[in-house]
Design brief:
This protein is of the alpha+beta class and about 425 residues long. About 45% of the residues lie in helices and about 10% in strands. It has a domain at about 35-105 and about 295-330: Uridine Diphospho-n-acetylenolpyruvylglucosamine Reductase, domain 2, CATH 3.30.43. It is built from 13 helices and 9 strands. The longest helix is centred in the middle third of the chain and has 32 residues, at about 220-250. The structure holds protoporphyrin IX containing FE.
């Protein structure tokens, strides 16, 4: 027996030796140590990773500190897994467009849900947490059908305009009473999302009938997961953005006034803005983009390396969690005129023309960019431009200020008074 000789040693000596052996085993064999040629970062201990260094701190604070101390490729460990935070916009673009970075790591929310949906048989279901060929086929199917329905295009515009008009009529009926804006927006979004999801569900069910008896992605487990994903991905993101849109514009009366002046000059007050008016409304368009830049709903998008790869000269092992630092790209002083303030000038040139900034990435970038982006862009534009054409808003009570340290930002919870704007 290999350890027989230990039996001949006095009791305390064998305990110390056993302890030493276990310690060495932990140091050299247990997962979680810094891999060779891995980007710089927090100390990574076996098993616990960097938990001792980040414990108790809010996520956005951890990420900002990490970038400040270790730069644009900064690493840490969470239990046995290496994590890489990518913060420079050019690197973000390069790395998150690469096919090796398109996986998602296991996420407790989707993994648990998937096991529950499939009686414990499947962890890889749906689009948000899905991986591999199945995810790719499903994503293509979702994108194709959203496009065919006209989401993000003029065919679905009347549906959004109808919901916005109903919301504005409801606001008008409040006759100057304080309105809890979040509730109004949530109602609007759930009606909207039901329409989108309902149309998509009927297409998926038809596809399931075509594939009866075959092994394909068109089965009941995928159906439930993908419908769930569409709701989960579309609801909170859009409703928080719209709630914050009204809040930020109302909080800056000079900006609110300029938006309204432009809407009056270009459209008057008799007809509602349509998506095709966006190019003729540069200040309004810039303000709406600024809402999403400044609010920055998602701090980081989470991916993982599907194979061993090399980025910026570093070796990144398969399974490394890759964090796309959306917040860093959208506040980089090299890329924005006034990154720390709410300022539509961030999207305007000296002639007052709207200019695209490629570092505007609230929907992510690359292989896994938001599947609902065209739809969301249209919703945000129509909602905010219609509301500010018809009302002037003032904030009258704030229960919770906007300030979220977590990955998904929480909007301010507030009440507003809407002053109707009479016809010109
Ligand atoms: C203002 C609104 C929205 C924002 C800010 C937003 C943002 C995001 C972000 C940052 C991601 C992660 C991208 C990545 O991992 O690289 C994402 C993914 C996703 N979003 Fe959105 N989103 C919004 C609205 C929507 C809507 C309305 C839908 C559906 C109709 C939707 C469906 C999805 C789906 C399915 C994914 C997962 C894509 C994949 O993993 O392949 N999103 N979104």
């Amino acid at each position: 027996m290999a350890l027989e000789w230990m039996g001949k040693m006095p009791g305390w000596e064998s305990i110390v030796l056993l302890g030493l052996l276990l310690f060495l085993l932990l140091i050299f064999v247990a997962p979680g140590r810094r891999p060779p040629n891995f980007p710089p970062g927090l100390p990574m201990w076996p098993v616990i990773g960097s938990m001792l260094h980040i414990q108790g701190l809010p996520l956005r604070t951890v990420l900002r500190n990490l970038r400040k101390e270790y730069g644009n490729m900064a690493s840490f460990g969470v239990f046995g897994t290496g994590v890489l935070l990518v913060s420079d916009f050019s690197l973000i673009k390069e790395i998150f467009s690469h096919k090796a970075s398109r996986d998602r790591p296991p996420m407790s929310f989707t993994t648990t849900r998937n096991y529950l949906l499939s009686d414990g048989q499947e962890s890889n279901l749906g689009i948000i947490g899905g991986n591999g060929d199945k995810w790719q086929e499903l994503r293509r199917f979702v994108l194709r059908h959203l496009r065919d329905f006209g989401f993000g295009k003029t065919t679905c515009e009347p549906m959004i305009t109808k919901e916005v008009t109903e919301l504005m009529d409801h606001i008008q009926q409040q006759k100057g009473q304080p309105i809890p804006m979040m509730e109004e927006v949530d109602n609007f979004i759930s009606n909207e999302d039901c329409d989108v999801t309902h149309s998509f569900a009927s297409i998926f069910l038809k596809e399931m009938q075509r594939h009866v008896g075959e092994k394909s992605i068109f089965n009941m487990h995928e159906f439930t997961a993908v419908i769930f994903d569409m709701f989960a991905a579309g609801m909170d993101t859009t409703s928080s953005t719209l709630t914050m849109g009204v809040y930020l514009i109302a909080k800056h009366p000079a900006i609110q006034q300029k938006v309204q002046q432009e809407l009056d000059e270009v459209l008057g007050r008799d007809r509602l803005p349509s998506y095709s008016d966006a190019d003729a409304l540069p200040y309004t368009l810039a303000t709406i983009h600024e809402v999403q830049r400044y609010f920055c709903f998602t701090a980081v998008a989470t991916h993982s390396a599907s194979e061993d790869c090399k980025f910026a000269g570093y070796d990144i092992p398969k399974g490394t969690v890759l964090l796309e630092n959306i917040e860093a790209a959208m506040t980089d002083p090299k890329l924005w005129k006034n990154p720390q303030e709410f300022d539509p000038e961030n999207f305007l040139n000296a002639d007052g023309k709207y200019v695209k900034n490629p570092a505007f990435i609230p929907y992510g970038i690359g292989t896994r960019v938001c599947a609902g982006e065209p739809q969301a862009r249209m919703q945000v534009f129509l909602f905010l431009s219609c509301l500010f054409q018809r009302f002037t808003f003032s904030i009258v009570g704030e229960e919770i200020l906007f300030n979220s340290p977590t990955n998904f930002n929480a909007p301010a919870i507030y009440s507003t008074v809407a002053h109707p704007r009479p016809p010109l």
